[in-house]
Structure to design on (513 residues):
């Protein structure tokens, strides 16, 4: 789910020992590793996995714009890779994997008796609101329908392409809860699966109704705190409610803790945080999502599943994944900047498992894995073209733009300075103008901005030809990457690239002064 459009947007080998490991890994609480403070580490072979195959998986991540890749087996990290320019110290947006966290909080509230039933009608939680389009279908919506994306609301999110009109309209609403509750009904609840980010936003509002506090605060008390996760950044809506559909930022290590809680059937260090029956429902998803690209995908309680691979997972836009492999006792985490094939990733992880017990040490495979991790952690310069005379003409000049889909109002590139930089003025979703500036690398390497409310921006540029300047920008840890072409012609510049929805975008500006 996208709420705010983006405008331009340790490498560490975890091999603690090459010696033979324990042949038996304890199950349950006895002898269990609980990574509340930090994750214990082990070599892949000590945990029955093949280092050479994991090296191939790390390399595969480079072809899919991974930011990080983490694998823990039997409660120990065997792989912990970070892809430059992303580094482990930067929290990562988990996008719609946030939804699964909201589902987890609903399960906790239910287990505590704050929520009497998952079949409780939705409208009961909002008795003082004047809700539009109320009919028998809307009265029949339950918490469970929201969890399963079968609420039946009329909604346009473009989950498999198309315009995200409902999200656009939602971002403009002053009261998001009211906006979602007012939607007309398109189907009888429980009959049709449709991916609707309004559902978890309503669940977040329900959590606040049940607990008297924002969902983020309840999460810190009941989930994050017990797991040893420091209070993370989690955006709120205009009413101050925790956004339920997205916008939670976690480190890959903390994402893995959530997966490990599920892998251990809701138990953490002797405390039963989640009821086992909730884990059973999530891990045996029965709702067919009818996704054309992968018909095997199923859904339950805001979690995805690949039943034939015996995997269930949280999923966020651009491949923010927490994957649980109960049969293999593995939790894997992926953060990325583009889409990836879930089944392909699952197969490659499962393919690295060779034994339930320790394997002989594999120095050659360990070396391959160490090199793969080091390679992706080291930024490799991209090609840059020769600097044309035009660079001197446009450097330091400001180009202004009429109203456009990107919200860009002006752009200045200072390319001949000792430290080349850019400055952009743009319109935010509230209509206010914000300034964005930072360094730009012209040697094929990114330059990072200081941290701000918009995160860390990594930007590089090069001349594609004598009149075209290319810009590659990442909001590091936001799971987004954009490439733009700036074509200069006299006093005009045409900026082309891809919008948030993947559509082609072109805007034209004129040099001022």
């Amino acid at each position: 789910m996208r709420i705010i459009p983006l405008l331009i947007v340790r490498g560490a080998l975890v091999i603690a020992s090459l010696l033979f490991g324990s042949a038996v890994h304890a199950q349950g609480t006895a002898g269990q590793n609980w990574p509340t403070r930090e994750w214990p580490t082990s070599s892949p072979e000590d945990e029955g996995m093949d280092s050479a195959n994991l090296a191939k998986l790390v390399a595969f991540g480079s072809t899919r714009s991974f930011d990080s890749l983490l694998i823990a087996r039997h409660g120990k990290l065997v792989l912990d890779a970070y892809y430059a320019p992303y580094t482990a110290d930067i929290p990562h947006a988990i996008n719609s994997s946030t939804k699964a966290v909201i589902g987890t909080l609903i399960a906790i509230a239910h287990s505590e008796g704050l929520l009497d039933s998952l079949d409780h009608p939705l409208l009961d939680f909002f008795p003082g609101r004047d809700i539009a389009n109320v009919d028998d279908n809307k009265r029949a919506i339950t918490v469970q329908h929201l969890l399963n994306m079968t609420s039946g609301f009329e909604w346009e999110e473009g989950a498999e392409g198309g315009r995200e009109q409902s999200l656009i309209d939602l971002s403009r609403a002053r009261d998001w809860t009211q906006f979602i509750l007012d939607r007309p009904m398109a189907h009888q609840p429980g009959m049709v699966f449709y991916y609707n980010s309004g559902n978890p936003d309503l669940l977040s509002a329900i959590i606040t109704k049940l607990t008297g506090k924002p969902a983020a605060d309840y999460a810190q008390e009941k989930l994050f705190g017990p797991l040893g996760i420091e209070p993370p950044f989690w955006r709120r809506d205009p009413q101050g409610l925790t956004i339920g559909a997205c916008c939670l930022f976690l480190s890959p290590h903390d994402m893995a803790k959530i997966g490990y809680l599920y892998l251990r059937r809701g138990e953490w260090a002797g405390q039963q945080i989640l009821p086992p029956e909730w884990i059973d429902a999530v891990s045996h998803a029965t709702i067919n999502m009818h996704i054309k690209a992968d018909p095997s995908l199923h859904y339950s309680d805001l979690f995805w599943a690949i039943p034939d691979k015996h995997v269930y997972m949280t999923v966020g836009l651009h491949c923010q994944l927490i994957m649980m492999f109960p049969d293999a006792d593995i939790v894997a985490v992926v953060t990325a900047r583009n889409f990836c094939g879930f089944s392909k990733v699952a197969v490659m992880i499962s393919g690295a498992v060779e034994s339930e017990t320790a394997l002989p040490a594999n120095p050659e495979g360990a070396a391959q894995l160490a090199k793969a991790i080091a390679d992706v952690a080291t930024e490799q310069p991209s090609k840059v073209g020769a600097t044309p005379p035009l660079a001197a003409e446009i450097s330091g000049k400001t180009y202004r733009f009429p109203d456009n889909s990107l919200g860009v109002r002006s752009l200045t590139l200072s390319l001949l300075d000792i430290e080349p930089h850019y400055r952009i003025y743009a319109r935010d979703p509230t209509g206010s103008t914000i300034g964005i500036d930072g360094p730009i690398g012209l040697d094929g390497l990114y330059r990072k901005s200081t941290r701000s409310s918009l995160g860390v921006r990594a930007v590089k540029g090069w001349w594609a030809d004598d009149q075209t300047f290319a810009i590659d920008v990442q909001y590091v840890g936001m799971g987004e990457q954009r490439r733009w072409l700036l074509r200069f012609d006299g006093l005009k510049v045409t900026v082309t690239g891809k919008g948030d929805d993947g559509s082609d975008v072109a805007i034209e500006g004129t040099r001022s002064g």
